[in-house]
Design goal:
The chain is α+β, with helices and mostly antiparallel strands. It is 62% helix and 12% strand. It has 5 helices and 3 strands; from the N terminus they run ααβααββα. A 3-stranded antiparallel beta sheet has the order 1-3-2. A hairpin with a 2-residue loop joins strand 2 and strand 3. The protein starts with 10 loop residues before the first helix and ends with a helix.
Length: 116
């Protein structure tokens, strides 16, 4: 059974969600959070960027409902709200990888034909 298409009234929310994922640093931070909760300082060190940059991206994902935050003293800890985000990213990644491999085969075959 096919899923119903997204209603027109929900398209803006869907587009906003995907735009949040359209930033490489956000995907990097999500990947760092794959194994569980981390504090901002750990994310800064692992991503090798500034705290301001990390905090900016974490705030966007928090507002989108992708992440949750808890405070412990002066530290803020972030974790992924819904692990389905990893399935979504993996699905898209594998589809893109398959297309790249398909294009590589096409261009290789094309090059071999032109050498004859």
């Amino acid at each position: 059974m096919k899923d119903k298409p997204v209603s027109q009234e929900h398209m803006p929310q869907l587009a906003q969600y995907f735009s949040v994922l359209g930033e490489p640093m956000r995907l990097r931070l999500l990947d760092l959070l794959r194994d569980g909760e981390k504090c901002v300082q750990d994310l800064v060190a692992a991503s090798e960027t500034s705290q301001a940059n990390v905090s900016k991206h974490l705030k966007v994902m928090l507002q989108a409902g992708i992440l949750t935050r808890r405070r412990q003293g002066t530290l803020a800890y972030y974790s992924v709200e819904d692990d389905l985000i990893f399935e979504l990213c993996n699905l898209v990644y594998h589809r893109l990888r398959g297309r790249v491999e398909q294009q590589a085969h096409y261009f290789r075959d094309f090059s071999l034909l032109n050498k004859k």
